[in-house]
Design brief:
mainly beta, Jelly Rolls, globular
Length: about 180
C-alpha cells in the first residue's frame, strides 16, 4: 500500500497493492493494521454506495456537529473527487485537494473529519463507495456551493447536474461559524 500526501495535512490518497493476471485482479480495499501504521486510525461505522451518471456533481457535503471522516473509492467508472478544509482556525482553511478515482487505478481517498467532500462523474456512470466514521445525521447535514469562487476548485466539468440541495448550498463565507468544524492541532 502506498500513501500519497496531498496539499492538505491528513488528506491522503491510498494506492493499494494490486495483484493481477489474465483472470482478473485482487487487492485489499481496507486493512486496519496497515491503515493504522500509515497514521489513519479511523473506525468505520457506516458504508455507502452510490451510482451516478456522467455530469453529476455531488457536494460539497459535510456534517457538523457529528462530523464524518470518509474513505472513498470507485468500483466502476471514474470521478474527480475533492476535499475542502472548512475547519475554523486551520492554516489551510478554504483550501482544497482533488484526485482522480477510477475503477482502473483502484485509488482510495481519505477525507478526515472537518473537511467538506464532493465529486463529479466523468465516465458514462460511476459506482462510488465510501466508508464513514460516524452514522449519517440529518440534523448535522450541511453543504457548501460546489462553485464557490473563494475556493477556486478546478472542476473538470461545467454545467453539472446538481440536486436541489446542492443548487441551494451557501457560499463558505455565508456559513455561520457555529456550523463549521473547529481546527485542533
Amino acid at each position: 500500500m502506498k500513501i500519497i500526501q496531498t496539499t492538505l495535512p491528513g488528506v491522503v490518497v491510498i494506492e493499494p497493492q494490486v495483484f493481477g493476471d489474465a483472470r482478473g485482479f485482487f487487492y485489499e480495499s481496507y486493512n486496519q493494521a496497515k491503515y493504522v501504521a500509515a497514521g489513519i486510525s479511523a473506525t468505520f461505522v457506516q458504508s455507502n454506495v452510490s451510482r451516478s451518471s456522467k455530469g453529476v456533481l455531488r457536494g460539497l457535503h459535510y456534517q457538523w456537529p457529528n462530523p464524518q471522516g470518509k474513505l472513498v473509492s470507485v468500483l466502476e467508472g471514474e470521478v474527480y473527487d475533492v476535499a475542502v478544509d472548512i475547519r475554523r482556525g486551520s492554516p489551510t482553511f478554504g483550501q482544497w485537494a482533488g484526485v482522480m478515482l477510477t475503477a482502473d487505478n483502484h485509488r482510495h481517498f481519505w477525507i478526515p473529519e472537518g473537511f467538506a467532500h464532493g465529486f463529479c462523474v466523468l465516465s458514462d456512470f460511476a459506482t462510488f463507495t465510501y466508508q464513514c466514521t460516524a452514522l449519517y445525521d440529518a440534523k448535522a447535514d450541511a453543504s457548501i456551493r460546489w462553485d464557490d469562487a473563494s475556493l477556486g476548485i478546478d472542476w473538470p466539468i461545467s454545467g453539472p447536474q446538481l440536486s436541489e440541495k446542492d443548487l441551494k448550498a451557501p457560499l463558505l463565507a455565508d456559513v455561520s461559524a457555529d456550523r463549521l468544524p473547529v481546527f485542533t492541532a
